[in-house]
Amino acid sequence: MLRDTEVGDPFVPRNRAERRRWRHVAKLRPRYISIDDGYRYAGIGRSKFYKDFLWRLRTVRIGRRNLIELDSLDELLDQLTSESETGG
Question: What does the domain layout of the chain look like in residue ranges?
Answer without folding.
Answer: 1-30, 31-88
